[in-house]
Amino acid sequence: MADLLGSILNSMEKPPTVGDQESRRKAREQAARLKKMEEEEKRKKAEFRKKMEKEVSDFIQDSSQQKRKYNPMGKIERSILHDVAEVAGLTSFSFGEDEESRYVMLFKKEFAPSDEELEAYRKGEEWDPQLAEQRRRLKEQAALEEEESSQTKKSEAPNSNYRDKYSHLIGTSAAKDAAHTLEANRAYGCVPVANKRDTRSIEEAMNEIRAKKRQKREDDTGAHSSSS
């Protein structure tokens, strides 16, 4: 047991082999290269940000410019430009379908783009305010014509109770229709049920019945006297 422990201690105290020294050297060199690359990347980002801050400042001071379009750039550069624009109080958007064609546009707050303008940029089209105004007017005119057409169709649709609703306006026409119906009934020997209805009062009907009975009794009495 003592011999085994001694051998382990001896191996730990031995200096590193040539292979171990080479691996450590390569690791140190790689770490140095990575650090240098990080510092270079950091320097480039700082330089790019400084450049964008200068361009954004010039853009703000130029009263003749309402918006500014940049050439396609990488994701990191776009992120830096968006940040610079936000700090400066500008509105910024990225457009382009694929990563290679993505670009940034800056807008001054007082000239923020409309939804129609943004939609044109997303489609890869140039924004033309005059053409957009013509399209808007055409859409409004088409919508107005469609609404008028819909109202016309509704007014032309038949109304089942229009005679009752507008009887005070179409009295003459209704009278003509009634006369025409009556002539048709006469021509074909048809009498409406309403025309068959007895319009006499109950008292008149009873008086007529009594008169008929009285007449019958008189007739019977006269006939009896003649036979005697």
TrEMBL record:
Organism superkingdom: Eukaryota
Domain R3H, chain residue ranges per copy: 46-109
Classification via InterPro entries: R3H_dom, R3H_dom_sf, R3H_sperm-antigen, SPAG7
Biased composition, class Basic and acidic residues, residue ranges: 21-48, 150-165, 198-222
TM annotation in the entry: none
UniProt cross-references to PROSITE patterns, sorted A to Z: R3H
Database matches in SMART domains: R3H (SM00393)
A Pfam family that the UniProt record links to this protein: R3H
An MF annotation (GO) of this entry: nucleic acid binding
Disordered as annotated region, ranges: 1-48, 134-165, 198-228
Name the UniProt record assigns to this protein: Sperm-associated antigen 7 homolog
Source species of the chain: Lates calcarifer (Barramundi)
Gene: SPAG7
